[in-house]
């Protein structure tokens, strides 16, 4: 069974930093591209970052470019999101999602981890 | 990237059909046949319902179907059931390994 488990969320002050992790199991992690998607409280989904299976390509939404960094460790079957210069508007649930092989859709999602940016 | 436009809500009685529209631009929905739809129940993670405009994962009931015309994609739920009450989001590939989601639609089963 495919499982994605996010961790690392919490309360952080504006301007602070946080590192999110996503532990993968039940599939060959190194064969899949991955994404981070977030959802502000009571709002819609927002794609924020993508990484190819070999980490050669990394992309970001304009809203996080220059502040967030996506990375992965295939040996540890883990995906990461390093978040710096956090803003109040970065508050929300952060999901990691697997991109389907030879596709563009996210076919499996974690349960999410809540990030709260507040003073 | 601006979010794709969806109606805020749609509703229908059990057994009826509802259609959710998703309007983008010639740079996303209109340029790629890579539109997907996700169902999200309150407090839960999104679930893939449709991909590549009109393809269904094997576990998704065939009551769910997708289509696209120009810059607008659509999701139709036929034979509406109570468990279909949820939020639905469209998503389009927007080129250069970027994606854009829709604003989301709440489906209410009357």
Briefly summarize what is shown.
The complex is a heterodimer of chains A (119) and B (110). Chain A contains no helices and 11 strands. Chain A is mainly β and 119 residues long.
Question: What does it look like?
Answer:
The complex is a heterodimer of chains A (119) and B (110). By secondary structure, chain A is mainly β. Helix content of chain A is 0%, strand content 51%. Chain A is built from no helices and 11 strands. Chain A has strands spanning 3-7, 10-12, 18-25, 34-39, 45-51, 58-60, 68-73, 78-83, 92-99, 106-109, 113-117. In chain A, strands 2, 4, 5, 6, 9, 10 and 11 form a 7-stranded mixed sheet that branches. Chain A has a 4-stranded antiparallel sheet with strand order 1-3-8-7, with no helix packed on it. In chain A, a hairpin with a 5-residue loop joins strand 4 (34-39) and strand 5. Chain B has 110 residues and is mainly beta. Chain B has strands at 9-12, 18-23, 35-40, 47-50, 64-69, 72-77, 86-93, 99-101, 105-109. Chain B is globular. The A-B interface holds A 35, 37, 44-47, 50, 52, 57, 59, 61-62, 95, 97, 100, 103-112 and B 1, 3, 32, 34, 36, 38, 40, 44-48, 51-52, 57, 89, 91, 93, 96-104.
Detail the topology: elements first, then pairings.
The complex is a heterodimer of chains A (about 120) and B (about 110).
Chain A: E1 3-7, E2 10-12, E3 18-25, E4 34-39, E5 45-51, E6 58-60, E7 68-73, E8 78-83, E9 92-99, E10 106-109, E11 113-117
Parallel strand pairs in A: 2-11
Antiparallel strand pairs in A: 1-3, 3-8, 4-5, 4-9, 5-6, 7-8, 9-10, 9-11
Chain B: E1 9-12, E2 18-23, E3 35-40, E4 47-50, E5 64-69, E6 72-77, E7 86-93, E8 99-101, E9 105-109
Parallel strand pairs in B: 1-9
Antiparallel strand pairs in B: 2-6, 3-4, 3-7, 5-6, 7-8, 7-9
